[in-house]
Amino acid sequence: MNIEKVKGYHCPVEAAMDVIGGKYKALIVYELMSGTKRYHEIARAVPQATPRMLSKQLKELEEDGVINRMMYPVVPPKTEYSLTETGQTLVPIVDALCKWGEHYFELAGVPVPCEG
Question: 77: which of 71, 85, 105, 107 lies 20 to 30 Å off by Cα?
């Protein structure tokens, strides 16, 4: 976690949105809520993310202390991602976002495209 970055925020909402407000960050957290995942599993769950964007979002989440990245020195390389203790505190928030999204689909009369 970059303390200087945190000191630069003007309010808690700004900090929260910067940490999880990236294009795919909440989706990554959502995917990791069910446990440790390898890169390709996350990529499969977020198919709209380009490899470059997904790697960038994962790196930012790691820098912000939300996820752990564990690299294993094997061939081919094996990398696993999981939520940190700080990342676990996002679980109820992401759950609430999921429930709100389901409600939004229901209001529009559109079937929910994925299971929450």
Answer: 85
